[in-house]
Amino acid sequence: MPTNQQRREAAKRKLQRQLVRREEQRARRRRTTLIVGSVAVLLIAAGVVLAITTSNKEADTAASADPSASSSSDESAPTSSEGPVAPCTYTAGGTAAKKVELPGNTSPEQTGKVAATLSLNGETVDVSLDRSLAPCSVSSFLSLAAQGFYDNTTCTRLTKSAALNVLQCGDPSGKGNGGPGYTYQPTAPTVDKPYPVGTLAMANVPSSQGAPAEEGSQFFIVYGKTEIPASYSVIGTVSTAGMKVVDAITTKGVNDDRQDGAPNAEAKIESIKVPEAAVTASTVWSTPSSADPNSGANDSTGAVPSGSASTSGSDGSATSGAASTTGAESSGAVSTGESSSAGQTTTN
Questions:
Q1: SS (H, E, C) the chain
Q2: Where are stretches of biased composition, namely Polar residues (predicted)?
Q3: Of 58, 83, 190, 285, which residue is least crowded by CB atoms under 10 Å?
Q4: Above 60 in pLDDT, residue 300?
Q5: What b/e readout covers 211-229, taking b as 16+ CB neighbours within 10 angstroms?
Q6: Rounded-to-integer distance, Cα 143 and Cα 272, Å
Q7: What residues does 120 pair with on adjacent strands?
Q8: Residue 212 has what pLDDT?
Q9: Cα 245 to Cα 1: distance, rounded to the nearest angstrom
């Protein structure tokens, strides 16, 4: 007859086997979800052939885009996004183009708007930041602006094509591949036509195949028709008067008459001013349901599991999406050229 000790050990082994089986089942479900999500993203990208990317060197990319396969621009700003349910995680990594601290507010307000003021070429550009669209992205932008990260920087990229018209900024190095030395996950818009004229959005930092997209410091302003996948966090809108300042730059065209490259006109951001109280404004975030053991995991949905400032990971720079030198449209990926192997999301 087995002893009590033997019975306890047998029960413990049985429990361990059950836990292993459950974990294997959850892993299979996550893999299935990731595969399905990846296929869907590939199909969308194939139909649009657009991504906003920035890099530290130009590359000529000819892309044949079918405008009917993607959403067109609209004059109204998006009103909703697929927001995370857990606090923000900012992962340190790489070399920062300008030394800054990681955002300390990992549970920022999720609603409300914040008035910001850009000084662009000595002119005032008023911006309305909308927390409800991408709270973690807005929180990072506010933190960087408050620390002077964007002060005395230039907008390094301008795209002019049938489906991608953006001015990309946010790299203190001036090379188009710099970032803040950290990355975080984007919040994809959930509305149709999310990038109308006047939209302010974050560029993506290219990541390894199959890994979730990330963001850093680079951002772009939509000044014309832009048909790209809804992969870039929208953080706000530029005022009508502010867009006139932007248009004064974009109408001068791109260097060497390309579709993607450095703007011919000067595009210098002297400063970005934000309310000090907005940087630290926080709230209690809702948490994933305890009924789902995978809730809050860093899976294909892009949800962030915890609010923290991680000290490992790639930094937030983006690589530029090169413009085509031929009559074909330039590829429209918006990503940044920060210090990761690929750059932040910039517009092509």
A1: CCCHHHHHHHHHHHHHHHHHHHHHHHHHHHHHHHHHHHHHHHHHHHHHCCCECECCCCCCCCECCCHHHCCCCCCCCCCCECCCCCCCEEEECCCCCCCCCCCCCCCECCCCEEEEEEEECCEEEEEEEECCCCHHHHHHHHHHHHCCCCCCEECCEEECCCCCCEEEECCCCCCCCCCCCEEECCCCECCCCCCCCCEEEEEEECCCCCCCCEEEEEEEEECCCCCCCCCCCEEEEECHHHHHHHHHHHCCCEHHHCCEECECCCCEEEEEECCHHHHHCECCCCCCCCCCCCCCCCCCCCCCCCCEEECCCCCCCECECCCCCCCCECCCCEEECCCCCCEEECCC
A2: 283-299
A3: 190
A4: no
A5: ebbbbbbbbbbbbbbbbbb
A6: 11
A7: 123, 269
A8: 82
A9: 87
CATH 2.40.100.10 fits 49-288+301-345, yes or no: yes
pLDDT in tens, 302-326: 332 233 444 443 333 333 333 333 3
Residue 156 bridge partners (DSSP) = none
Let me know how long the chain is. 348
Cβ atoms within 10 A of the Cβ of 326, count?
A: 11
Beta bridge partners of 199: 237
The distance from CA 95 to its chain's CA centroid, rounded to whole angstroms, is: 18
C-beta separation of 232 from 203 below 8 A: yes
CA angle (288, 335, 142) in 5-degree steps:
60
**Which amino acid is present at 327?**
G
For the chain, the straight-line distance linking the first and the last C-alpha, in angstroms and rounded, comes to: 75
Predicted confidence at residue 118, as pLDDT, reads 98
Contact 87, 285 (CB under 8 A): yes
Token look-up 């870039």 returns 232
Burial of 3 (0-12, 13-18, 19+ CB in 10 A): exposed
For 40, residues 6+ apart whose C-beta sits below 8 A from its C-beta are: none
d(CA 43, CA 48): 9
Which tokens hold the place of 109?
């307000």
